[in-house]
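Ticket #4471: complex job returned nothing on first submit. Input attached below:
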Amino acid sequence: MMGLASYLIISLILFVIGITVMIARKNIVAILLGIELVLNAAALNFVAYSRFATNNLDGHIFSLFIIVVAAAEAAVGLAIVIRFFQIKETIHVDEATTLRN
Amino acid sequence: MFAQFLFISSALLTLGGAVAVLVTKNIMHSCIYLLASLIGIAGLYATLGADFVAVTQIMVYVGGVVILMLFAVMLTGGKDFVSRAQNLLGLAPSMGNRWTFSVGILVALVFLATNIKLILNVSKSIPAKTFGNEFPSTVNQIGHLLVKEHVLAFELSSVLLLGALVGAAIIARPRKQ
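Support reply: We reran it on our side without changes. The output follows.
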């Protein structure tokens, strides 16, 4: 029941839903939510392999660094979203067509 | 027994929250469902015996990232937050349309079909280790690993966080006219 395969399948479904959110939604904040789901699926895979396939805790360390990088990415991404909203007055992703305002 | 109950409820919370993030119209409700999904992932870490990672997940994501997302949603409400003309599927314009949803679900199905076989083979090749119900604390070992073997990555992550902090403050600065 609680074997490696069940964790891998949960992680795969989470990854696929994250990819679908990133492709389907048109709101920039929703795309960032999809990125968070994908990063969490990867971190869950690391911890599952660390428990079932190895005897050390390197997977936990890698998962912690994934959390750190995701936090930094969310901060910079949301700063970019707020700046984009100040310029364009919308956060629809189809409006993001130029690098300069 | 309790571990199995925790596993099933955490898995349902995780996957249900993720599906709700995909299909909810209101972006604020999507953030709240993402919070439920992240708490479910913390429960899955707990069933794997990763206590430190589970607590870090709750502290960083639930206490930090989701709150930051909610602030961003509230700061970028704008005119089209309430409603604009609705498109074919009757969805709000921030939801995407039927075309983007069909492309996303196609990519999802292709990815699922190509990886299920891989995962089943992996689980066959790795023998099933059985553990008891004891979960020794990992905090001591993680502390030793962070300051001995992985100390370079530890310091680099602190530099990365400082750079992200300064960069976010500079980017989000109000524009001078």
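Chain B touches chain A through 84 residues (CB under 8 Å). Closing as resolved unless it happens again.
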